[in-house]
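Re: the 272-residue chain
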Amino acid sequence: MTHIHIPDGVLPPWLWLGGWLVTLLLVMLASRRATALKYRRAVSLLGVVSALMLVSMSSEIVPIAYHINLSVLAGVLLGPWLGAISAFIVVLVLALLGHGGVTVVGLNVLVITAEMALGWALVRGGLRLFGRRRTGAVAGSATVVTLALSTAMLVGIVALSGAGTARETGALDPDTLEFSNPFSGAAVSINLLGGETEEGAAHAADQAAETALDVRRFAIVVFTLGPIGWIIEALITAGILGYIARVRPSLLFATATADEHRPRYGDEHGRH
């Protein structure tokens, strides 16, 4: 997951304040743009997709300490403007539930929005180039490319801050880059509303203290664990979008292969 898991008070104020400022401007622009395009019935889709992202980002694949984003899926279904609004909602709710610091909300929104926009563009271009029959392959490939680039963006932000950081590494030993007993616990841990348990929080604190990373080691860890998560997320995204392409193609291809101003989100059978 390309979230910046850094508590409040670590990043320099100029960086996180800048992130908040740019994010607020982006959300204002996205709101105006969405209003100008007159997206009818988009509110329900925005709510459903945001809820789906909220659940997925709260579900951890324990052995690799990875959270599924579904940001490419959300970007394809919502488009870049509604995607920016969705990213702000999801990241803010997660921060209020204790999933990351409040000060890094702005930076996290920018990273997730970048994933949505890039994923939307890659899938849109891929479908135009390869056709609807390749929806799964296009979506999967776009997801891997998008997450790789957004992870590089994440590392760049951490490097820009000039501060060391720590990241939960799951079963990975950051010193040897080897996995040790990865399936000693559950394969997937879901913790949506309750925050971390006392035992989990104590373990995370001990682990963070032991695995304080400089930027170089941080990059090594995320690019070691990341590809595993990228592939898992690519398969999930490919499966969902492939299914949508079969049962409700208008929801997907209205923004991928048709004119931008044609009816969207269920309006294709109605009138303006």
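DSSP finds eight helices and seven strands in the chain.
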